[in-house]
Design brief:
Keywords: Ion transport, Membrane, Transmembrane, Transmembrane helix, Transport, Zinc, Zinc transport
Helix content: over 70%
Organism: Eudromia elegans (Elegant crested-tinamou)
Radius of gyration: 17 Å
Catalytic activity: Zn(2+)(in) = Zn(2+)(out)
Order of helices and strands: HHHHHH
Distance between the termini: 46 Å
Membrane topology: Multi-pass membrane protein
Structural class: mainly alpha
Largest sheet: none
Number of strands: 0
Number of domains: 1
Protein name: Zinc transporter ZIP13
C-alpha cells in the first residue's frame, strides 16, 4: 500500500517542479505576472497538498513522516525556479519565457483535462455537475479579476 504514497510523492515533486518553473518564468516577464501566477498556484496548492497529505496517511505514513515527505517535495519547486533562472538566455528573459510558460501552461491544461473532465462526465447527479462547473467558472473569474487589477 505504501507504494501509492511514494508514487504520489514523485508526482507531487514533478508538479512542484513545474510550479517553480512557472513562478520564476512569470517573474521574469513582470512583477504583476509573477504575483498573479504565484497567487494562482497558491490557491491550487493549498487544497492539493491537503489531499496529498491524506493520500500519504492512507498509504501508511504517520503524520510526522507524511509532513516531512510533503515538505521534501517542495524542493521540486525550488529546483524548478532555479532551472528557469539558470536557463535564461544571454539575449534576455524573453527567449526563456517563450518556452517555459507555454510548457507549464500546457502541462496544467493537460492535467486538468485528464483528471477533471472525465470525473465531470461520469457524474450521475446533475446538481453536482452544475456545482462543479460553477466552481470552475468561479476560478476562471477570479483569475480574470486578478489579471485586471
Amino acid at each position: 500500500l505504501q507504494i501509492s504514497g511514494y508514487l504520489n510523492l514523485l508526482a507531487n515533486t514533478i508538479d512542484n517542479f513545474t510550479h517553480g518553473l512557472a513562478v520564476a518564468a512569470s517573474f521574469l516577464v513582470s512583477r504583476k505576472v509573477g504575483l498573479l501566477t504565484t497567487t494562482a498556484i497558491l490557491l491550487h496548492e493549498i487544497p492539493h497538498e491537503v489531499g496529498d497529505f491524506a493520500i500519504l496517511l492512507r498509504a501508511g505514513f504517520d503524520r510526522w513522516s507524511a509532513a516531512k515527505m510533503q515538505l521534501s517535495t517542495a524542493l521540486g519547486g525550488i529546483l524548478g525556479s532555479c532551472f528557469a533562472i539558470c536557463a535564461q538566455s544571454p539575449k534576455g528573459a524573453g527567449e526563456t519565457v517563450a518556452w517555459i510558460l507555454p510548457f507549464t501552461s500546457g502541462g496544467f491544461l493537460y492535467i486538468a483535462l485528464v483528471n477533471v473532465v472525465p470525473d465531470l462526465l461520469e457524474e450521475k447527479n446533475p446538481w453536482n455537475s452544475v456545482q462543479q462547473v460553477l466552481l470552475l467558472c468561479t476560478g476562471i473569474t477570479v483569475m480574470v479579476l486578478l489579471s485586471l487589477t
